[in-house]
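Lecture 7, part B: from sequences to assemblies.

Below are the input chains for today's worked example.
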Amino acid sequence: MTCLLETTDLRSGYGAIQVLWGVDLAIAAHATVVLLGPNGAGKTTLLKCLMGLLPARAGVIRFRGQDITRLTPRARIRAGLGYMSELAVFPDLTVEENLDLGALFVDRHTARRRRGELYTLFPVLTEKRRQAAGGLSGGQRKMLGVAKALAGEPRLLLMDEPSAGLSPLMVATVLASLAQCRASGLTLLIAEQNVKFLELGDTVFTMEGGRIAFGGTPAAIQADDGLRRAYFGLGMSPRSTEGGLA
Ligand code: ATP
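Predicted structure of the full complex, as structure tokens:
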């Protein structure tokens, strides 16, 4: 397994508040990794710290073999990291302007090629390219968020709760778009509370109190009584919850 991103004893927080208490994470190249955890567990904080939006207080972040712990967000983007926040897009800008922003750190030729590829991948965005992002449906807005993040051609895309505020139907649309990204070989780290996303995952990490509590396959989380109760609200045997991720 080639490890694309690895953190060792990562610690971070806000002012007097420490949130990350030593996060050890390993993400294999081309894997889809789901980071599950309750409100306040530190998922957003971890993604911000990986992206350089929040400084690490201790520990190391290695990406493609390089220590990026002290690099600026811009340098991390250039190294191949992409980030989709919960808000994902700028509502007052058009679809195309959002895509152009996502491509800010790649050259003009790559940006143009990439835009064409993304319009092919998300045809609905082509129809709406001149419209303000704020006028899109919730699902389309997330799709634009994904496209905007992909416009910078990242190797690893960090996504903060892509399902937030979406109806189940729209969650299905976003999942289908992510399945396409996954098939193209992109590595994904998706912070979520919605266990539907385990459908996509090769690996799941759970986060509690600023630490990784569990790491394994989606099947392994189902096989553990405590974890199943915590994340699926089920106390039944694995046999009786077959297909229970749906
Ligand atoms: P959620 O799903 O609710 O976003 P999360 O797992 O992403 O949860 P974080 O947003 O990382 O959790 O928050 C972790 C802790 O850090 C919480 O206790 C939160 O109150 C605190 N926190 C988050 N942002 C700030 C901030 N800007 N200043 C101070 N404390 C913060």
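Note for the exam: Residues 235-246 have pLDDT under 50 and may be disordered. Keep this in mind when comparing with the next example.
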